[in-house]
Design goal:
Layout lengths: L7 H11 L27 H11 L7 H7 L4 E2 L2 E2 L7 H11 L12 E4 L35 H8 L12 H4 L11 H14 L7 E5 L2 H4 L10 H16 L8 E5 L5 H7 L3 H7 L6 H4 L9 H4 L11 H30 L6 E4 L21 H12 L14
Parallel strand pairs: 3-4, 4-5, 5-6
Antiparallel strand pairs: 1-2
Helix pairs in contact: 1-2, 2-4, 7-9, 9-14
Amino acid sequence: MFIKNENPAAVLAMILILFLGPALPAGVAFAAPPDGDVNQDGAINIADVYKGMRAALGQLALLPDEKLRADVAPVVAGIPVPDDVVDAADVVVLLRMVLGGLYYGYPLNQFNSGDSIGEAQAAATSTIGADTKYHQHVWSTGYGVNVNSYNNRFEAAAPSLYTANDSTLDAVFNHAVSGAVMADFVSQAQEIVADAEALPEGRAGMVTVLLGNNDVCAPSQNSMTDPQLFEDQFKAGLDVLAGSEATRNAQIQITGIPAIYWLWVAKRGNLLCLAFIWPFVPCQSLLGDAGTDCISSASRNDPDTDYDNERQACTDRKLFHRAIRDNYNSRLSDVTDQYREAGLLPNARYVDIYDVQFSSSDITNADCFHPSVDGQAKLAQETWCRTHWGINDAQCPN
């Protein structure tokens, strides 16, 4: 928590005491507002703190772009929420960035941990039953031209800083494995640590994590991964990242499990999906008795409300939808906050996308289940716009 009316003299005293403290490690530079690089020299250092302090004291009028970069407070859930004022709270956050534990700029590189979504399985094919992996189309580390992935955005915004993923580096940066569950997070995190240590810079700039889909997609709702076990497995993976100098200060983005319910809504009218594909998809916790509709379209489009005389299949799908949000995503969010606030992973942040509804074109016709290229693009856009990088992005709704 940062107090917006903190005594400027106290802030000045703190800065003078810490003036000779350690700067941000060499090579870390930022280019995106609100990133703390007030003087826009490509690095966060005491000069930025000093300039922000003078602005907070009313001794300096910042230029518009300087103000965007200096306005890094308040911080909510690990993400800056600019309030169009540069004051003592912003100076405190800038100081924390200089001391090396906190940053919001573009990363040096990006690693990915995940499941079949992280491999873009079947994204670019309509061949029924195909399980081809299209890593170039992955929402995070993808390097193709059809998805405006995080990787593509970082490369365009900070080409001199960011080591971009491509077909030759993908095995280093993308550790997602089709079929992975949260229990696999530990091994993927261990691989990421090892590969980050082997890089010339010796560390990861960012790690994206999207796991849990296969924990909730199960033969039945009773066979979904126990929520407490799911939490323990998640913590075990975070412990690996927190335990290494190569990943401890990386930006760790934990993305919540998507609202899978909407893929049933999107494809329920497709006879091929309904009769020939879904019976063999390992997500009967959602797709069991998929041909039985809800009692009305109003009920179908409102999974958070129970309607009178509802059919059991519809009730079960709604319970599945609520369980993901209340029993799984809530744990991902709470644990991420705990690790950040304890300083174990100071740049860990949770991104919630449970309100995002995927349409029919967002789901591949190959298995009526995985995101298509359009779905991967939507995933990239929706998550990006909920991060600090999306705050001043013209493509993101304000």
